[in-house]
User: Fold this.
Amino acid sequence: MSLKKLLTLIVCMAVMAIAVSCKKQNKETVKIGAIFAVTGGASFLGAPEAKTVQMLQDEINAAGGIDGKNIEVIIKDSAGKPENAISFAKQLIDENKVFAIIGPSTSGESMKIKSICDDAKVILVSCAAAESIVNPISKYVFKTPQKDSDAAQMILNLMKKKGITKIGVVSSNDGFGAEGKKQLEKLAPGAGVQILISEVYDKKATDLTGVLTKIKAKNVQAVVNWSIVPAQSIIAKNMKQLNMNVPLFQSHGFGNIKYVKEAGEAAEGIIFPCGRLLIVDELADSHPQKQVLAKYKKDYEGKYAEDASTFGGHAYDALMILVEAMKRGGSDKEKTRDALENLKGFAGTGGVFNYSPADHTGLDINGFELLTVRGGKFVKYEDK
Amino acid sequence: MPFEQILQYIFSGITNGSIYAIVAIGFNIIYNTTGIINFAQGEFLMLGGMTAISLSAFMPLPVAILASVVITSFVGALIDFIFIRRLKKPTVLNMVIITIGLSILIRDIALHVWDEKVRSLPYFTGSEVTSINILGAYISPQVLWVLGVSGIIVALLGVFFRVTVTGRSMRACASNMTAARLCGINTRNMVTISFMLSAAIGALAGCVVSPITQTQYDCGTSLAIKGFTVAILGGLGNSTGAVIGGIVIGLLEAFSISIMPLAYKDAIAIAVLLLILFVRPSGLFGKKEAAGLKEF
Assistant:
């Protein structure tokens, strides 16, 4: 045996020895998969979600893990593409043998991997909003964001109160937009609101003056935009540019202060339903969510030096709910699933979660609050 | 349809059309000297916008834009210097693949430098809520900036290519590379200049449209596709063609919205493009003979 070969052998053995000894020293770990759109068009969802999960992983492990076991979150960047989400879901289940998966960030991706997780009997806690993720119910699929139908209902209730009966709807051509459009069209007649025109734009749209001109000609009393993309700022700017003086309603996708900054003065007065994270300072100390929200906001902003968003909050809820269920169910997947399904009164960032076999969202309309923009900031909407 | 509404659609179409036209002109300049389509053209826009946004935090807006144009044109020169000039056998296919690779590379670098968030430059005049009433139609002052800057770019390029020696040399390269070389024109330098010029134009366009369209690390791709379509429609290599092609596509899109759902906007624009190309395969203003000399 030449010296070179001998050396290689020694190095290899040393590496193996180190690897083995590391394994012995480390506590047992539970692997949790996470699929987020960290880059790409939906990165404003995925990036804060990934950061949140990373922060929580360190926090949980520093506090001794779950029942003495550390958690290891394996984050995969799907770039918001359903085909990536599918292959990552399969990889996480088959190769990494994860205990559960959280994410994906977008509704389209979640719908694609719903059946994969259900077939593999792996718990999926989605961070996307579309109602069809949990309706019809799949045994292993849950989600944390509030329901689209509740958001739409909230907007329609206010319209009814304000006497708005004729509206125009625009939505983006992705899963989130399509779902919102569907809910609005379904619920509007019940609130006595007539949708005069409903248009769909490309999620990468950079100019919406054309379609707004068309809507303006219909003499609507309000415009509702349903999307999660940067076009939310563009539509606000375009409406001011076209001198459209009707109120603009947006979905809970607007709950990101970045969009307010991009739209500048044009964002003033936009009304949208959203979770309470953005107005945590306005909450009374006795509010059940106050403590959770204040802590999450402080931790996140302290660690990453950027504003916390409700999207990161969805990932917070997904992981913490899973952790809570694991504490009750132990390392048994079925028991954890049962514990998750029967979790009640869990205060998260999106609201107080009450799961049941018939409800895998866990939140009702009370998870939302109507917000508006005043002075470049999110404030609670007060009806005058 | 009332007059104001028609006018509003026309403005909307011309705004988008002139953005497409500037991108198409960038394609044309490089096509003329190298015979290739630079698929990283959209990334020049993104780079210009992003650089100006970052710089505007430290300096007044006009200086930031100027600096960003200069920086981006150096990036253009660098790209030619590192990747294109050193090719031993520069075939069209090689160079096209290189530019596609570069576009991915630039996008990923931008993602790491600037992260994934959307940014924008402030409005050059007025703010997000300023609106100018022209005969009953409303437009943002930034739209006038876009139109003005596109107009000036086209005019200046016209003068540059007709009057200056460099411009004429570049046109000579466009007509016939070999003949240009025989006349003593340093064709390699012309290629470098063309990369710098189209990067600079891209960067300027990226800055002017930023308040309207907003800038994100991957915003160049979709603009490049539209610009490419317009360049083909106008006739590859023809700047006047690019301007008219851009406005034709812009207006088509705007008026298609008025009669059809918005979702069909691109389909209609592309359908018309195909129809025109069936009748005139070299584009509206492209010459058949000139196209025959090119490899691509």
